Amino acid sequence: MAPILQLRALKAFYGQSEVVHGLDVDVEEGGMTVLLGANGAGKTTTLRAICGTVRSEGEILFAGERLDRRTTEQIAALGVAHVPEGRGTFIGLTVEENLRLGAYTRAGRPDANMQRMYGYFPILAARHRQQAGSLSGGEQQMLAIARALMMAPRLLVLDEPSFGLAPRIVEDIFTIVERIRQEEHVSVLLVEQNASLALELADHAYLIETGYVVASGSAKALADDPQIRRSYLGY
Amino acid sequence: MHQFSQQIFSGLAAGAIYASLALALVMIYRATELVNFAQGEMAMFSTYIAWSLVNGGVPFWAAFVITLVVSFLGGMAIERVLVRPVENAPVLAAVVVTIGLALIFNSLAGWIYSYTVQDFQSPFPDRPVLGALITTRDLGVIGVTLVMLFLLFAFFRFTATGLAMRAAAQNPESARLCGIPVGRMLAIGWGLAATIGATAGIMVAPVLFLDPNMMGGVLVYAFAGALLGGITSPLGAVIGGLIVGVTENLVGTYLIASQLKLTVAFALIILVLVFKPNGLFGTAIVRRV
Known about the structure:
heterodimer, A: alpha/beta, Rossmann fold, about 40% helix, B: two-stranded antiparallel sheet
């Protein structure tokens, strides 16, 4: 299938300093692509460049449209849903209000979509009147993903959904993400520290070090690479 | 006892004005962490617009509505043209912009309308009612304020735009990721704040009389109310404003000369800042890096 997202010679900056030095990344339509790498490799910055929250150079093509030079809100309206590092839920608003905000760019009443989200994440239905800040870390991550899906996006961008969560909850979340990818026909671009779990679920993987792609290929090929196994999988 | 109750009620009428202006301050503070020192002068200028319309023969309530619309658009324009450029500047720069704005409006009003004190007719007759506890004019002021507060509450609670504005104030980056145009939300916030201020100005003008400096004292009381309630809490601003109005009236009647009433507001501001910096309902703002 054709890639839904293409990064071409992407450079990204924090203030004046260049953090990402020219990446070429393809995200296949309907698939799950993962960016792996150590802390500070430039994974989060790459995601932020896609969504226009940091300055970038190079080309970002999404379903034939240039995303670079567009504003973050325009990019969201085109169908890119970003669940940022630290989840970015509106902690002072209720669960239901958070979900409604996810549907901001969609015309019409969001109720049917909301019910579908409650189907994926029953715990959110039980807590729909609670303030998002009162949820546990795992529940907040679920809320952040559900809110992103309320946009009915074509591309779901997840930045370390496992961060700070217990292993069992991480597995729950990834199981649901995999189900959502199939049922909602959404492509997923994932940044993840938990390399073994990510390589199990993803089709394609890119290994990033200090702002460069140092290895890429099918997730299986990367998982079998002895050097990657030693450095990132620990066996 | 009767006099005491009377003072409480007329304090509530004054408090309703302070509550409105305090609410306008809090709305802008929550959205941009900026204290708008021009809020009072913007309200004064709006009041002059209403006054010229009424003098030109427009019926009062029509002039009232036209003024609110003009103020809304004016508030949005101010945000776009003057506040947006200093959005990412140090907070002092933005504060200086609002102080400059206050001076501009003050001078502009003096230039256009002169500094002569004008009479502004209240739409409500000034008759004592309820066993002379309160006048119909004060009741009218409280009523108009309550209606406005209720409409605002409904707007923020039940409309998509209101929810988006709350989200944009709370977490601008996440709001953008949801596709919410945060800049437009800020402009609407300034528009609404200007509209609330205009209502307060028009309601207070019959009592204070209209002149370019009429809102100076009111703004200080509104600050006191907003700080007392907690500068981050809209409900707190309303309650704080009412408390300030009643306190000011009682203290001015029983304890000190009424010429010294404004001191009460300053004393209150200092007490709150020293002993309860987050006010009654506010939350501490934690800066995330």
